[in-house]
Amino acid sequence: MKKINSICIIDDDPITVFGIQKMLGLVTEYEQLYKFVNGKAAIDGITDMLNNNTPLPQVIFLDINMPIMDGWQFLEEFIKIPIKETVRINIVTSSIDDFDRNNWKHYKEQTHHLITFNNKPIKKEEMEQITKVA
């Protein structure tokens, strides 16, 4: 198991955040965990990390439906940031809407980052796969 420098959870549901955090503790080791309640707070936090030369998260867990800035708006802004490293972005959603799957495919094609679409709840085996970093 490769240790991850940092992980970011962007979700406004404290139960989901707690569940992801608990599951992470079972399948991987990491140095830092960042938590944001919406996409705007996450973009601001990531921008601060860049400005302060703080290493960016290697793995992001992203909810789609959030107030202020949703997951799609976050992705729109995130892929504009000139980041050379590949960040693993795991969309975690209960959505079964084709619109969301099509959006995922669109953003996946627009960036060098690895973006996956995962339905809640995430099982332990899935968590092991979606936290693997290069």
Your description of this structure?
The chain has five helices and five strands. It has 134 residues and is of the alpha/beta class. The protein is globular, with a radius of gyration of 14 Å. The chain has helices at residues 14-27, 39-51, 71-78, 98-109, 124-130; strands at residues 4-10, 30-36, 59-62, 88-93, 114-119. The protein has a five-stranded parallel β-sheet, with helices on both faces. 40% of the residues lie in helices and 22% in strands.
Helical percentage: 40-55%
What do the pLDDT scores average to?
92
- For this entry, what is the oligomeric state of its chains? single chain
Rg: 14 Å
Shape estimate: globular
Can you write the helix and strand succession as a string? Answer: EHEHEHEHEH
Alpha carbon gap, first and last residue: 12 Å
The class by helix and strand makeup works out as: alpha/beta
Total count of helical runs of at least 4 residues: 5
* β-strand number: 5
Strand order of the largest sheet: 2-1-3-4-5
Proportion of strand residues: 15-25%
Low-pLDDT sequence parts = none
Biggest sheet features: 5 strands, parallel
